[in-house]
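ASSEMBLY PREDICTION REQUEST
Request ID: AP-0331
Submitted by: J.K., bench scientist
Number of chains: two
Total residues: 230
Priority: normal
Notes: Please return the full assembly, not individual chains.
Input sequences:
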Amino acid sequence: QVTLRESGPALVKPTQTLTLTCTFSGFSLSTSGMCVSWIRQPPGKALEWLARIDWDDDKYYSTSLKTRLSISKDTSKNQVVLTLSNMDPVDTATYYCARLYCTSITCYFDYWGQGILVTVSS
Amino acid sequence: QSALTQPASVSGSPGQSITISCTGTSSDVRAYNYVSWYQQHPGKAPKLIIYDVSNRPSGISNRFSGSKSGSTASLTISGLQSEDEADYYCSLYTTKEVFGGGTKLTVL
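STATUS: Completed
Returned structure:
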């Protein structure tokens, strides 16, 4: 059974760095084709893809946020960590981690965490 | 990678069919079959309902179907039910992922 769970602070101050952890079970991020992405959703708005890390440690970032984002994994702990620097109130959102399942012919988000609401306020 | 365009809202009565479009540029949706659709109820995480344009994961009702023509992918929901009322997002994978702006489905 695949599960993902996001953890981190619910409240951060402007200019601080946000660190979120995705702890997952039911699969290994060292297995070919397995990837984990972070996606966020401001209140009442659409989903926005942020970053992805692949089983081979390849990393991909949103073009608009790449200077502020960093993603890493700890395969032994089944965790993926996302950092977003210089937080601003517009970064207030629910942050999700999701597994991207890829084969040679397909890629899709098949499992999602429940999400964590992060509010940016002084 | 540019965003995908969806209508902001659609509506239908129980038992009817509706279609939600997802339009990209000729260099993405047209060229790739990695289009997926997600259903999101208020306060819940998105749920995969269609992958690879037209495939349904196990457990998803056959009332949900997907297709693609040129640069536009479409999600059709037939036999509308009240529980179908939700937000729907398309997504495209190439090297990175991108989501559409979302469509709110109202069941009248």
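REVIEWER COMMENTS: Residues 74 and 80 of chain A are 6 Å apart (CA to CA).
SIGN-OFF: pending second reviewer
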